[in-house]
Structure formats: structure tokens, C-alpha cells
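Q: What would this chain look like folded?
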Amino acid sequence: MSITRFTRRRKFAVASGATVLGAAILAPVASATQETPPSASTIKPTIVLVHGAWADGSGWNGVAERLQDNGSPVVAPANPLRGVAHDSSYISSVLKSIKGPIILAGHSYGGTVITNAAAGNPNVKALVYIAAFVPDKGELQSDLLNKFPGSEIPAAIDPVPYSTADGTTGTDLYLKPDKFRSAFADDLPQSTTRLMQAAQRPFTAAGFEEPTTAAAWHDIPSFGLVAGADKAIPPALQRYEYQRAGTKSVVEVPGASHVAFISHPGITTKLIQRANAATR
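A: My prediction, written as C-alpha cells:
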């Protein structure tokens, strides 16, 4: 497992290569030439970006734009945030709707979701974890969060009861307005985090206590980004998870908050592209 450290002034050195295919005309052809279908190696994988709690798909905009500019098809589905089983089943259905190879990235709780959702799907060629949970089978997110000190999330949570149409009840977890930026996104401008806090999507409390039922990283190559100043998922936990998963490449970004994919979209994009290149 290689570890690369980046600051704002250091950038990836990306090697690229191109193969030019030529064809000789053997004889005149009277009828229209039939096009040769593209081979599996020439099809660009679809990059699927899965957000975590207190966020939505728009958080990936900086990464998605860069990937699209490079010609990659991108999907950033809405993670329902209704619990591990529910959300994993939904994202799994999204993956099954996509033809061809997939590079699957998850941030924070999105890491738990992709770990479950990708299991058994041969089209998923790589898992990219961005400051994420990387649970093993039978493991709870609460188990992981308690392994290392440093998370400010427990003190920042504001529980809000909710009820459903069938009369059942649950508890949604929000982040308190005065804790949102410090615990979640303190390397972003306050003007940005005020809007993020106002639009945050809650995560159901039951999700913290739902076990992972499948761990796709046992069978699918993984890549990881450590947010060096993360106050939600401690950096020590991220390093532990990636090492346990046998992650092929780890990028560590000193000073990055939990939302490193927003504050460092370029580095995040390069890691996803590295995962893509490594699986060709």
C-alpha cells in the first residue's frame, strides 16, 4: 500500500498514454462498412459518487465537473440516509441500471453504503473511499467510531424525532448550527457552511447500529483518501481501515476537513482517476 501526501502546492504527476489503432483496406467494399463495436478496454467506466450524512449529491459538483471535463460519465445519486440496509439496496439498484464498468466512490457514511452495495456486482472495478467508513461484515459504524478518539460528531448531533405514515417512529440526526462547521467542514468558508448547514439532510439514528452484511473490499480493489484534520472520522481510524482493507493506494491531505472532496476536489478527482487507471 503506497501513501502519498499532498498539500495545496503539490499536485499529482499523471502519466497518460494513447494507442492509435489503424486498419488497412484490403479490397473495395460496395456496401456500407459495419462499425466494429468498442472493446471492453476502450469503454470509459461510469464514475458513481455516493455522498454521506448531512450532505447531498451537489457536494460532488467540483469532482463531477472535473471528471466530466475528462470525458468520464458521472452519476451522483441521492443516498436516502434511511439506514444501511435500505440505502445499500437502493444504491445497488442504481449500480445495476448502469451498463459497463463502474468506479464507485463513497464519502463518510457513503463508504459504508458502497461497501455493501457493490458486493456481488462484477461491473464495479474499484472502490474509492474519501474520508470514509470502511466496515467489515457484521461491523457497526458505532464500533468503528469508538476505536479511536477525536470525533466531534457525538457532541454536535441534534436528535429530532420523526413519524411515518404507518405510525412508526424514529430519530433523525442533524448537526447543531453552532457545531456544523467545526465538526464537519472547517476548511470551507463560513458563507458556504452556513448554506450547507441549512440544507443538511439528516441521517437516521438506526443506521449507526445496523451491521454491514457484505464487505465488497474483500474482492474489489480499493483506494483511499485520508483527511488529515478530520474531526468527524478521526484520521487514525481512516488509516486503520484502509490498511485493513489492503487499500492499493492512499492519499493523505494534511489540513483537510471531513469534506475533503469539497475543499480538495482536484486531489479527490486524481485519486478516482488513479483507481480507474489501475483497473484497466
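Residues 265-278 form the longest helix (14 residues).
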